[in-house]
Amino acid sequence: MLKEFKNFIARGNVMDMAVGIIMGAAFTAIVNSMVKDLLNPFIGLFTNGTDFSNMYVNLSGEEFETLAAAQEAGAATVNYGLFINAVINFVIVAFVVFMLVRGVNRIKEAAERKAIEEPASPSAPSVPADIALLKEIRDLLASKK
User: Which of the residues 70, 94, 122, 145 could staple to 64 if both were Cys, CB 3.0 to 4.6 A apart?
Assistant: First the structure.
């Protein structure tokens, strides 16, 4: 069983997945910082400094100044502001990931185009297709005799 486990871990796709998860976690920290520290202040400019995270509906009937105070008191709340923040973060993260994938795809396409456009190596001169076809026909006729 230990040998099977070692073989499972040593497989390339498991290691690739582990690297992807680790990089994803690091990337998440960067994107979250970008959203919180760079983009949210600009969003605040357009929404007149509205803090969505403190928007909620209090279902308990008591009065609380902030969502944190209501949660600390154990009041039932509908936290629609936190949901709005989550949607904004999702849209921003999705856009950033889209831009990264788009950039990577462009780089890959450019590399593929370059590989296609590169001439064949000079040591192996290319034979025109009609000559190659004629040689095949000649060889087939010679083999039937």
Answer: 70
Which residues, 6 or more positions from 89, have their beta carbon under 8 angstroms from its beta carbon?
32, 35
pLDDT tens digits along 27-66: 888 877 877 788 778 877 887 877 788 889 999 888 898 8
pTM: 0.55
What is the rounded CA–CA span in Å between residue 103 and residue 107?
6
Q: Bridge-partner residues for 58, per DSSP?
A: 77
Q: How far is it, in rounded angstroms, from Cα 75 to Cα 69?
A: 9
